[in-house]
């Protein structure tokens, strides 16, 4: 396999798995808070004590535990705010990393190697303008009518990197859409609480008796 094509495929895979990498790093960031774990452990322990204490018989201890719980709850809220800020900083850092390591290099590579031949097709299968598009990329749409870009001679026409990438990303996006539609949770139909016929009868106004001459 062409080394350039291998590099391009690596960038494509990185682009697709990057959201998963971001999610994993964010979860690790949230799970790494030892202080939050300790606070939650203390809260559960005191709550268990409160279940075994009678507010009437051991009022002093019960009140003390309540105050401790209030203090712990405040500390938990403060820790949550710090975690949210930490996650936001992590997201910002990951965006910069993606921009520097994936987005910018991949964009430059796609522009620089846009006419790299990926594979060949027998000439004559598609109309001439499509063959020119396959070989020269999207620029052929503008320059083709001017005869500046022409389809090369020979029995085959090459498919350029730009068109190949477009086709691959379209196929992948379509497959992702199909997968999401198949795995999406089904929405239950609203339950009918009244009989439609009875509801219709309730809205029917009885005719007013008219005097008979």
TrEMBL record:
Keywords on record: Coiled coil, Endoplasmic reticulum, Membrane, Signal, Transmembrane, Transmembrane helix, Transport
Signal peptide (residue range): 1-19
GO CC annotation: endoplasmic reticulum membrane; GET complex
Membrane topology type: Multi-pass membrane protein
Keyword Endoplasmic reticulum: yes
UniProt-annotated location(s): Endoplasmic reticulum membrane
Family: Belongs to the WRB/GET1 family.
Organism the protein comes from: Kluyveromyces dobzhanskii CBS 2104
Any one GO molecular-function label of the UniProt entry: protein-membrane adaptor activity
Identification of the protein by name: WGS project CCBQ000000000 data, contig 00058
Coiled coil: 36-93
GO biological process, one term: tail-anchored membrane protein insertion into ER membrane
Predominant location: endoplasmic reticulum
């Amino acid at each position: 396999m062409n080394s350039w094509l291998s590099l391009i495929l690596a960038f494509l895979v990185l682009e697709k798995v990057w959201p998963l990498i971001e999610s994993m790093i964010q979860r690790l960031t949230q799970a790494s808070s030892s202080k939050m774990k300790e606070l939650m452990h203390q809260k559960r322990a005191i709550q268990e004590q409160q279940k075994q204490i009678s507010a009437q018989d051991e009022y002093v201890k019960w009140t003390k535990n309540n105050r401790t719980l209030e203090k712990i709850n405040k500390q938990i809220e403060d820790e949550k705010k710090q975690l949210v800020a930490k996650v936001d900083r992590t997201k910002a850092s990951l965006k910069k990393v993606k921009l520097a390591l994936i987005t910018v290099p991949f964009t430059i590579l796609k522009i620089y190697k846009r006419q790299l031949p990926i594979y060949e097709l027998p000439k004559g299968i598609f109309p001439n303008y499509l063959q020119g598009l396959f070989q020269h990329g999207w620029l052929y749409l503008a320059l083709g009518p001017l005869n500046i870009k022409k389809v090369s001679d020979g029995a085959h026409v090459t498919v350029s990197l730009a068109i190949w990438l477009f086709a691959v990303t379209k196929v992948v996006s379509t497959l992702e859409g199909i997968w999401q539609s198949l795995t999406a949770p089904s929405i239950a139909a609203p339950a009918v609480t009244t009989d439609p016929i009875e509801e219709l009868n309730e809205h029917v106004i009885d005719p007013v008796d008219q005097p008979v001459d």
